[in-house]
Amino acid sequence: MKYILITLSLLLGAIALLPACKSNKYAADKLPPKQLRWGSGGGFVGKETAHILCDNGQIFARDMMGAITKSGRTKGSKAKALFKTAETLSNLDFQHPGNTYTFLEWQDGDMVRRIVWGDKAIPVDKSVQDLYNQLNGMLK
Fold this sequence. Notes:
Elements: H1 2-21, E1 34-42, E2 47-54, E3 58-62, E4 68-73, H2 76-88, E5 95-96, E6 100-108, E7 111-117, H3 126-137
Parallel strand pairs: 5-7
Antiparallel strand pairs: 1-2, 1-6, 2-3, 3-4, 6-7
C-alpha cells in the first residue's frame, strides 16, 4: 500500500509538471522578441523575402509585402544552437550589398543586428555563410 501511494504521488507530480515543459507556440502576429532572420533581396524589383526562426524551433516566412506565415519547424535544441552561433557573430559589422543581396539578422527586444552581403568583390566571412547555409538547410 505504501508503494502504491508513493508511486501515485510521483505520477501526479509528473503530470502537474507537464505544462511547464511545453514550449511556447507563437502565432504569426505574436512573434517573440528574440528572433533570427535570414533571406535575400534586391534586383530590379527590390523585393526582400525572409524567414524567421524562433527560439522554440518554429519557422515563419515573410514575403515582400510583409505578410508572415508559418513555414516549418526544427528541434528547439537546434534552434538554440543556431541562436548561440549567431550571437558569436553579433559584433561583426558587414554591410556590403550588391544589386542582389543576402542577409542575416537577429533581434533581441529592441536591439537588431544585420549583416548584408552580395558585393562579389568583398566576400562575407565563412562563418556567416556557414550559418546562412545551415538556416537554409532547414527549409528543405
